Every structure is written in C-alpha cells, then in structure tokens.
Known about the structure:
Elements: H1 2-12, H2 16-78, H3 87-90, H4 106-109, H5 111-114, H6 118-155, H7 166-170, H8 172-210
Amino acid sequence: MLASxxxxxxxxxxxxxxxxxxxxxxxxxxxxAWGAFRFENRRRKTEEDEKRIGAANRALYVIYHYWNLxxxxxxxxxxxxxxxxxxWLNVAAHPAALMPTDRFQPNDLQxxxxxxxxxxxxxxxxxxxxxxxxxxxxxxxxNLVLNEVFPxxxxxxxxxxxxxxxxxxxxxxxxxQLKEITTAIFKNVxxxxxxxxxxxDKMHSTMKTLYPDRxxxxxxxxxxxxxx
Length: 228
C-alpha cells in the first residue's frame, strides 16, 4: 500500500525537466516581449527624431526665405534712396502686398520647449513677428502712397519724383505718416536682416547640440547685406 501511495505522489509532482522547460519558455517569452518593446521604442524614437530634424530644416529654410525677401527689397527698393532727403516720398510703392509664401509651423517646433531650448523657440517666433511687422509697414506705406499721395499729386498736376511744395499738396498728416513709416521701414528691414542671421545661427547650433551626427541646412548669407 505504501508503494502505491508513493507511486501516486510521484505521478502528481512535476519533474524537474518539465519545470526547467516551463522556465525556459517563460524567459523566452519575456525576452521576446522585452525585445519587441525595445524595438518599438527605438522605432518611435527614430521616427520622432526624423520629424524633429525635418521640422528644423524647414525652419532654417523659412529663415532664409524671410531674409531673402527683405534683402531683395533692401537692394532693389531702399538702397537707391538711402541717405536722400526725398527718400520718404520717392521710395517705390508695391501694388501687391509683400508677404512670405512660407511660415514657421509652431506645432512642429514645440519639441524645442521639451529639450531645454525654449529660448531658441522664442527666438524663432519673435523673429517671425519682426519680419511680419516690417512687411506690414511696407504694405501700409504702399497703400498710403497709392491711395493718398499719388491722387493728391495728380490732382495738383505734380509728377512723380518732383519736389518743391509737395508737403503743402499732401498735407501735414499724410506727410508725417509717410515720413514716419518710411523711416521705420529702413530701420526694421536693416535690423531684421541682422537678427535673421543670428536666428539662423542659433537654430543651427541648437540642432547640432541635439543631433551632433546629423546634417542640417546651413545658409551662406551674402556678404553684401547689412552688417551687424
């Protein structure tokens, strides 16, 4: 009877090889799950890095787009009248609003706020505001010239480019507006051309700090632009 009982107990207890096999299976399952988890994490990180790098390169291009827009205006419109007494009157007006075709995408650049580079994010956003202010000043002046100055000059029989009693024809209010806006345009465009270059260097440096082994757009600005 004792032999029968011992035999029954041995039948109910798992053998070591079964326990070992179960353990191996458990470890293999855990290792597989852990490997899959790490692979997924790496995939997501790589995907996130590529998004950030793409957003940074687009932002660097937008900086150049802004700079080029203002630089062309400076060379073609402002420079011929720099230092002239009648610049306030004779700087050319633009019938169409001078607006950028590309803009920063704040949502795509918010990662800068998460990696202790909030100052770079702020620099980009403020730089865009400065550029838009300059462009709005240009538009405001063009509207003033086309809607007020030219009609009054035409009504008085004064040709474009003439001097003399032009201030009397335009009136004190229009003359004051035109002088103030023109001065502001010269100042803002020149300052923006300098600060845009600084913003480019800051953004480029930030991204190289975050991703030292990756390449980023680096603009070679013309030396003929307004110097700091």
